């Protein structure tokens, strides 16, 4: 039973179905699903999950690229009292197995092409039932079989807004992925704050290419559902397909990670597409190179907004840089502001702490912390790590940054990425940003390595921009010498690579750099 005082995100499926049942909710290349039909199907699926033994709090995993069935499982699991647990389709079978061992799902829905990533015998022995999308080995294993014959009427289950609604595994830039617990209250609060911050309108059509197994993808889904928007799903990002979809579906709002925006800017056939419907672009998930953002603002007549969050903020924002802050007027104040990640989210309180967890004054660099209704309940089955990052009632992000006197938050670097060279603190992001000022540099990553004199120094990796004259190492070193102090120079050299190892959020996994190029760290 749903009470008015309970912030249950799944209740929005019923609200949207009540007020605009015939409106398209989920759109794919070959399928359109209205709010009304979506609500009926999720009611049927919720009953099908319960019939297969789902109990309150049980996890329902999904291993599939973006598709309407993923969203159906998300809502059906919540309606049935369970928790949605999406898996990254890019993971190798041992990585998938490790997460499944940790999550211990009661059911798993998998796209047909991903079944070979699963140890079906092991799952069966663990009591996990597998439902396959598309043709299945037997009728009982088909996803649609879970809906057949089930009533489509509203499902009455006892749920509270502090119950587990989703279990999302982190991308793992700092080691083994952790299961982040999101409650119903987390989801509802984040959806509301995101919709307000992004100024979404009921008539908006949102394009979702970011995967729903990461926070950015879920965030776009949440804010769009909160406003009753149509959501166009892409199975994966492809530049031509993305542009064609904007034109065909008259998309008005979209979320992009920085690498996606770079690919749009570099598309030689960009002018062939009618993008006149597009009104707003929200970007995030990874640091946005300043040059990329400035190129995009000069090229497109769109409203740009920047969102900075974490899986642990479920999947709401830590800070948000609004359209009014995206101004290229040449003033030092606005230039600096464009390099920030914005002001604190409307459902979060942000501070900067020192090593003793004491608040620092404006402009002082320390660890970014926050509290609010968007902060996770904790890490799944990891009470010690939960207690550490949520100590004192504040979520400790592990990011270093500072607040200016106007409340704008500036990200300096990951706390664990900071390098001490000759007694000086060196932040890799500062060097990366300087390298990205060169027009022929598409991506840059800087990591630490040992040094016999200075203790530590840095080594840089650069991906040249396609179609641009390739810069020399000497040219880039000269650029850094102009912009940075001598102790910040990469004494380990600058190395050109074809690509950087990225996680699902588009962030560089620096541990992988050391595995891929061990000779550069000796």
The side-by-side strand order for the widest beta sheet comes to 2-1-10-9-11-12-13-14-15
Briefly, what CATH class of the largest domain?
Alpha Beta
Annotation field: number of helices: 15
Radius of gyration: 23 Å
Low-confidence runs of at least 5 consecutive residues: none
The CATH level-2 architecture of the largest domain is identified as 3-Layer(aba) Sandwich
Helix content estimate = 25-40%
- Proportion of beta-strand residues: 15-25%
| CATH homology superfamily of the largest domain | ANL, N-terminal domain
Number of strand segments: 25
What is the CATH fold-level name of the largest domain? Rossmann fold
Mean pLDDT: 92
Helix/strand layout:
Blueprint: H1 11-19, E1 24-28, E2 31-34, H2 35-51, E3 59-63, H3 68-79, E4 83-86, H4 93-103, E5 107-111, H5 120-125, E6 129-133, E7 164-169, E8 179-183, H6 184-197, E9 205-208, H7 215-227, E10 230-233, H8 239-249, E11 253-256, H9 258-265, E12 280-283, H10 290-299, E13 303-309, E14 317-321, H11 332-338, E15 343-344, E16 348-353, E17 366-372, E18 378-379, H12 383-389, E19 395-403, E20 409-414, E21 419-421, E22 424-426, H13 428-435, E23 441-451, E24 455-464, H14 473-483, E25 494-496, H15 510-516
Parallel strand pairs: 1-10, 3-4, 3-5, 5-6, 9-10, 9-11, 11-12, 12-13, 24-25
Antiparallel strand pairs: 1-2, 7-8, 8-18, 13-14, 14-15, 16-17, 17-19, 19-20, 21-22, 23-24
Helix pairs in contact: 1-2, 2-3, 6-7, 9-10
